[in-house]
Amino acid sequence: MDSATIWEWVGYLASVVVAISLMMSNIKKLRWWNLIGAGLFVAYGLAIDAIPVALVNFFIVLIDAYYIVKIYKAEKSINQQP
After folding, report:
1. In terms of Cα–Cα distance, which of 40, 74, 25, 68 is closest to 48?
2. Quick one: 64 exposed, middle or buried, by C-beta within 10 A (0-12, 13-18, 19+)?
3. Which pTM does this prediction carry?
4. Nearest to 61 by CA among 30, 32, 33, 39
5. Which of 56, 35, 59, 46 is closest to 7 using CA atoms?
6. What are phi and psi of 8, to 5 degrees?
7. d(CA 29, CA 27)
8. What is the pLDDT of residues 50-73, one digit of tens each?
9. What are the CA-CA distances from residue 50 to residues 11, 47, 63, 72 (Å)?
10. Where are the domains of the chain?
């Protein structure tokens, strides 16, 4: 398998992971799956020199990471209440 084919499959995998994330009813799972898919798209975009793809998905990774931290902090504060 040449590198172009490998990166093509990474792009397909990223698409599937993002699609799976959008089927999640649990927001925490949605954010995690979407973060993984966007991360794969960042790698894919960089590999094929598609900088706009990499940039927008890097921004999505940051958004997902922000909300994941926010979710876990909220859960922690709820669990620490007497």
Report:
1. 40
2. buried
3. 0.88
4. 39
5. 46
6. -60, -45
7. 5
8. 999 999 999 999 999 999 999 999
9. 12, 8, 20, 33
10. 3-80
